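Preliminary data (for renewal application), zinc ion complex.
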Amino acid sequence: MDGDNGVVEEVLVARTSRRTEAEPWNAQSPDNSAQNRLLIKGGRVVNDDMMQDADVYIEDGIIKQVGLNLHTPGGTKVIEAKGHLVIPGGIDTHTHMQLPFMGTFAVDDFYTGTRAALAGGTTMIMDFALPDRGESLVEAYHRWRSWADPKVCCDYALHVGVTWWSDKVGREMQELTEEHGVNSFKMFMAYKDTWQLNDSELLASFKTCKQLGALAQVHAENGDIIKENSRKLLSLGITGPEGHEMSRPEEVEAEATNRACVLANQVGCPLYICKVMGASAASVIGEHLRRGVLVWGETIAAAVGTDGSHHYNPCWQHAAAHVTSPPLRDPSTPDKLLRLLDVGDLQTTGTDNCTFSASQKALGKDDFTKIPNGVNGVEDRMSVLWEKGVVAGKMDPCRFVAVTSTNAAKIFNIYPKKGRIAVGSDADIVVWNPHATRVISAKTHYQAVDFNVFEGMEVHGVADYVICRGRVVVEEGNVRAVSGMGKFVPKLPHSQHVYGRIEERDRANAPHKVERAAYDGPVASLNGPAPSSAVEDSIIPASSQEFYTRGPTRSGGVNLHDSSFHVSGAQVTDKSPKRPSVKVNNPPGGKASGSFW
Ligand code: URP
Ligand code: ZN
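Predicted structure:
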């Protein structure tokens, strides 16, 4: 390649991936150290909304030019990408590196996990700081930062768990949002007795998210039902991993998903459903979306790449390796979830990468409720989505980019810094070989865990080169990552993508009182006799204060304490002072347009 000064530059040729021995901890390739000018030449650039044949020129970690026949300075390193796709680095929205969980720690830590992420074409992960019940959220955040910062090989951000509720938690959510780059908080509807919140705590946390311009996330499963089902199954002698799936049927996920949507909508809070595993939960999201609820759905690589039949495998270790929550579902599910990703009812893909090796899973050898929950995925997500989505004809490369990267960047407010190949964006780029194949196996993967739920799957689509903030960290399939090389990416609140509609919506849906002449007739006394027989007929026990707080909601009156108020959907849009009655003609569950704060 001739630079503009005529110097012949170093040229790398993208070719079919070939993996060699993993680099040792802290290995530093000379190629990585001072590489500030890079040209990716001759590839096809794919963004979520367009594809174009273009070169990409990078300087100091930022994309400086996108176009044909670019003039570049001398000393520029060149990657020949002919026949390859040049795509935004993947963003895994859901990981748990080295999570302390169920008495042990996830075996993939922030080093092995993020290095594996890069190997597969993911240049950023979003992990969860999960405080213990009663623990300060801010302290948990700092604890996670102290684990991650020295180890991460790729960029990362943090969601923070609201695992208990108090006013202090609300204040800490504010501090995290305003001072620490956190704009998403996760509430658990399962894990009873540890992280689970009840409905009023969910409402309080949703309201706080709304006030802060943050995104509320939920783990949607009904923890009370799971606890009861688990007790019954164990008493029947069902102690193996199949009990995990049996205790958490699809409707248990769908019920919580619906409840979360209703609760969030009632307080006008945008909602992100983490890890949608069941087709029924996904349908619930679709129904709410079509009623105007601000809800986004994430599924995971394992949900589209494997299924719950493995819980019934005669090998205990194999079955236990598939235990995750919500669980993997029946074999018809991957196809359904992929179609929903394509049409947009689901928008993002994470992995819930939370890995435990066989001996850790064996903590639950006599009781499925003690099997540490979690599967792998951070390394293989891009390939699995490519294979099951694009190669199978269920999505095109643009949609693949949307669901593996761009949508996450938009939802979590880091777009177009991340999730796009454009001038000014971070140079997080994958030179993707759509023709190369590899066979996924625990024997060859980079992850620390000793099992891979995609074992034996042949996938097309291999990350030949991965560039993270302008550094070539994967070269011909070999990872040259360095611990601590990744950066924490702050996420600011009030994402346009999430909150852009909210102000107008709140204004449009604001409740209006009905202007009318004051009632000047007789008023029943609370403890005494009714003043006239006409009034007496309409009175239910006069001692009940309830009587006075429940106004005629369906015929013009607005009473904010009446739980049926919102369901009709009529009151908030009915601005007519004299309308005698409202015909209710809404879908079951009511219109979604009626939330007003
Ligand atoms: O099943 C998994 N991965 N458990 C980890 C915690 C969670 O539910 O996110
Ligand atoms: Zn998780």
